[in-house]
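My hope is that you will study the protein record below before we discuss the fold together.
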Amino acid sequence: MNIRPFDQPGGFYRGNLHTHSTASDGARSPRAVCYAYRRRGYHFISLTDHFRERFGYPVSDTTPFRTGGFTTVFGAELHAPATSLGDHWHILAVGLPLDFTPTGPHETGAQLATRARDAGAYVAAAHPAWYDLTDSDVQSLTAASAIEIFNTTCQESNGKGNSVGYLDRLLSQGRYYHAIATDDAHFHEGRPDVGRNWVMVRSSHLEPAALLDALHAGSFYSSQGPEILDIESARGGSKLTVHTSPVRRVCVSGAAASADSVAAGSDFTSAELTVANLRGPYARITVTDKRGNRAWTNPFEL
């Protein structure tokens, strides 16, 4: 059993895929946003300002803010009518061209997502729990490769930052998605929304095209702090050994209630999990540290 990204060559690069600046409704300039993440040890971000008419449909050119150890991937948060509740869609598109055409007057969310994917972008259903998308809403975005399973700003704004349930329900129905965790940082006073959720992308090198290829391939995991260092398969794929930074719990989850876990009252860095009895077409691994911070693998086939 091969589980990405741990079976891939290259190194891990820490990045935030959802960020806003003064180009839309954020409080800091694009330069200041990039600096804020670079000084926190990030290797890359995607500046994803709201792609709306009132902001001039921005896809910001962040090339000037790249350095030897920090890069950027162009992107935007796309909007179009209408979800089941009548809200405008929030669709994350990482890897857009700078000249991406503005949203048409009659373009639906599904059509907009498809156009972004066809332009080369990595597309995700943004923060579905935050605005109560239905499962059918998410599935209608056929161009989406990922579900944003945790969003810092949404957690701070209305307590609905956790969208893991969408991922599990749809996986159990045979619908496959990657799992991304992001900040959705706006840098507004009094809202700590920076540096709390990220992706760890395994790539051959720190370069926008290579990072984007790795995202499309699912060669990453998401984290709030814990590191997942390696996952080894044994006994014909019935056992997995998960190597981590110090954590208190490691769990593998299949469909419905099927799972296996290892937990302890003190830190450990290796856990053996049984997957032979899990249900469903897919499973995923969650690790939790002593502070309650988590890291999530992408789902993998059983």
Remarks:
- The longest strand covers residues 259-274.
- DSSP finds six helices and 17 strands in the chain.
- The mean pLDDT is 97.
